[in-house]
Amino acid sequence: MHFAYRSALSPKPTTSPSSQTAVNDGNDHESMIFRSECDGVIQISQDGEVISFDKESEVMLGIRSEEVIGKCLSDIIALPARGECNTGARMNLPSNRWLQCHANRANGEIVSVELAMALPRAESSSVLTVFIRNVAGTKHCTDESADSTIPYRQLVELSPEAILVYQHGKFTLLNQAACRLLGATCASDLLGREIFDFVNEDDHTALHASTHEDNPMPSPFIEQMWRRDDGTLFHAEMAAMPLLYNDAPAVQVVVRDITERKRLESIQQGQNRILNLVATGSPLAEILTEIASFVEAHSPQCVCSIRLLDGSSFSQIAGTSADLPDISASPTQIQLRASNIVSDSPWSAQPIIGNAAQVLGTFACRFNESRNPSTEELNLYSICIRLAAIAIESRTLQERMRFLAHHDGLTRLPNRFLFKEYLELALCNAQRHSSPFAVFFLDLDKFKEINDTLGHEAGDQVLREIAGRLRGCLRHTDKIARMGGDEFYILIDNLTDATYARGVAQKLLDEVSRTIHVNRQECRLSASIGIAIYPGDGMDSQTLLRNADSAMYRAKELGKDRFRFYLTINDEEIAA
Question: Where is this region: Disordered (predicted)?
Fold first, then answer.
């Protein structure tokens, strides 16, 4: 039984009429104090037998005095065992202070009362005076004021953070935020449950280390996988702090759902990984495959496919789709989706748009069931479509830069640097197989007049036309390059004799001399060609190019619109 002691000087608002009654055998000073605070007065013998029972006591306990006189006081009021109170009498009642205990009313109701006893003036006195007062009306307020956990519980409940308190591994307090986080409707569904039931098995050791009740220091936030009441896992971060709850050691845990944060972090890491592939020059197919895998990892039950637009056809680069929607049917449609899974494929497709608003390809996701993508999935697709556009345009730019490093930007023919590589390769093959080849140096006659009369734009059109015609005169094994201005180098590989070189040269002259129409005006050109043949006209690239150049100037000196070999013997053969 729980007993609470209060000072005899504690305030008590109610004073009964019996408090004015004199008790001759009591200590006058103490009796005066107790009488001022009591509701009733009972006189008992040294053995605890009731001698008198006043009216106020009768009303308080619902018992008539004749029913209790002669009985032991402990029959109607539960008194503490001997030793719990400081008294020299046989009854265990305190002197100089109030004792809280319980009394049995006549109707069986138990009421909370407080008792106090005034010591007699003479040790030989056989009568003891017991003062009684009813505290049932104030007990509830007293209990609440004595409960120090009420302010703490109120603060916990008002907190937007999910807070739970557990003792010996079991929940003893949870706020509504914690209930929502763990998927429960109310705290009573979780009270008494083990905290480890809500934490993934792999994180049990870390949880025990950071939330042990004997740990005197609060733990910092750590990331773990927690489990809701229905078994679904979520990313969480938690921090623990030891405290006393209901006068016993406990642990307060603050838990936050960081699933969305982890998802965004994962997406950011994926973006960085893909951009790193772009920056380090990885193959385009590898980058697009990584993008497709990235989508499938973050969009369950989805198969991603990316195709590049090649003219009017598609070439699949990544993914495993069998039938992507034809985006060329609606190249500006932002969202294409099959509405009937029976007649149409369950695709969600979007175009990949470049910076210049051109369609670069198509990005599509196929779902295992006919459904619309979620908002999170659409945001993910938007990110990946942009990444695909960056990768495609980056590779296009890199390929263009590599192309321009070895090709002429105007005519798209190889430049002098690439031609010299071709020439060195031809020298190696010729030396290995003892096969001759020819180097042509072609210069357009009077091309400057076209620039001067029609303008440089017209001159560029003429150069592009001439380049196409010259390319059409050659075999696929032959090489042609624009050296700059109106000069071209031509390499005729695997030359059988000078007669074949003469035939190619004449064909080139004929193509150049055909009329060219520019801005509704006719332009007529001619060309002078110099020819050097390996090995007779040179054994290295510099000598061959120099001798071809000399032969070209000889052709110009002879009247232009003709070709000349470097060696006189070849010219004589032509003349013959």
Answer: 1-27
CA distance readout (Å), 73 to 34, 109, 121, 132, 389: 19, 17, 22, 12, 95
CB burial of 427-444 (b: ≥16 within 10 Å; e: otherwise) equals beebeeeeebbbbbbbbb
Enter the CATH code of domain 281-402. 3.30.450.40
DSSP calls for 533-566: EETTT-SSHHHHHHHHHHHHHHHHHTTSSEEEES
The pLDDT tens digits for 167-181 are: 988 999 999 999 999
Measure the CA–CA gap between 541 and 420, rounded to whole angstroms.
Answer: 8
pTM, rounded to two decimals: 0.56
Q: What is the pLDDT of residues 425-462, one digit of tens each?
A: 999 999 998 899 999 999 999 898 888 888 989 999 99
CB-based contact 420:479 (threshold 8 Å): no
Q: Could you tell me which CATH class the domain 29-134 is placed in?
A: alpha beta
Confirm or reject CATH 3.30.450.20 for domain 149-261, answering yes or no.
Answer: yes
